Amino acid sequence: MLIRCTILASLLMGSIAVRSSEVLDRMVATVNGHVILQSDWDEELRFECFMSRHPLVDLSADERKAALNRLIDQEILREQMRLMDSSPASAEQIQKQMEALKTDQRQHAGEAWETVLSQYHLTDKIIENHVAAELEQFQLIDTRFRPSIQVSAAEVEKYYRERLVPKLSASDVISLTEATPKIREILMQEKINQLLNSWLETLRAQAQVRTTITSSSSDAERSQGESQ
User: Fold this and answer.
1) What is the pLDDT of residue 214?
2) Which terminus of the chain is less hemmed in, N or C, by CB atoms within 10 Å?
3) What is the spatial distance between Cα 98 and Cα 133, in angstroms, rounded to a whole number?
4) Which pTM does this prediction carry?
5) Count of CB atoms within 10 A of residue 147's CB?
6) Residue 51 to residues 54, 64, 96, 131: CA-CA distances in angstroms?
7) What is the mean pLDDT of each run of 10 residues along the chain (228 residues)?
């Protein structure tokens, strides 16, 4: 325990600012001993706002808490990737996704990529890191769950009749045969998400998770933890 505390202290000391005028980068959570810092949390929020085109201002406490919970889930998934010795995302995969993001941004925002990044205090490298992490997580989740999932013809027909057709106008009518591949993938993703949520709940229950959140009203620190 003393060795772990010493190592943790060294990591934290190496990550904080050395000048008195700088804000200290404090720890906001640990996941099985892995530290999540305030800067990690802030970057995740900026990235999520960038992806959803949400202004950085007026983020609610619930939105900030949800972002922290996603960071915790991401760390839990990274541990699973290390256990499974998952392959990292390739440079080609990352570049393809980056080009798709840039194209999408140009179509919607009408501003230069660099201008939009600066508005969210992001860089190409930060975006690439997040893209790589998401690709690797998708690969892990897909590999784990997709082979065991079946989507029946009856499920596809029910989705088509009850969820797709009511949304279509007379000019947008599409046959069941034409719609089947997309419907099958939608239902597959829904089932994957259900299994993922259940898996994450199990992994969280088995993990040692501790969060330290500062209340803005009292500036008092409260801790929440769960361990097994």
Assistant:
1) 58
2) N
3) 13
4) 0.78
5) 7
6) 8, 15, 16, 11
7) 42 40 77 97 96 90 95 97 94 97 83 92 98 97 97 98 94 95 98 98 97 52 38
d(CA 25, CA 35): 11
* Exposure on the CB side of residue 57, measured as CA atoms within 13 A: 1
Which amino acid is residue 25, in one-letter code? Answer: D
What local confidence, expressed as pLDDT, does residue 13 receive? 43
AA identity, residue 150: Q
Cβ burial 110-126 (10 Å sphere, 16+ → b, else e): eeebeebbeebebeeeb
What does the pLDDT read at residue 154?
Answer: 98
> d(Cα 210, Cα 95) in Å, to the nearest integer?
35
Q: What 3-state DSSP class applies to 120?
A: coil
Q: Which amino acid is at 12?
A: L
pLDDT at 40: 97
| Cα 116 to chain centroid, rounded | 20
Which helix (H) or strand (E) segment is 184 a member of? helix 176-206
In this structure, what are the phi and psi dihedrals at residue 179, rounded to the nearest 5 degrees? -85, -15
Measured distance CA(217)–CA(170) in Å, rounded: 55
The partner residues of 213 in beta bridges, in order of sequence, read 222
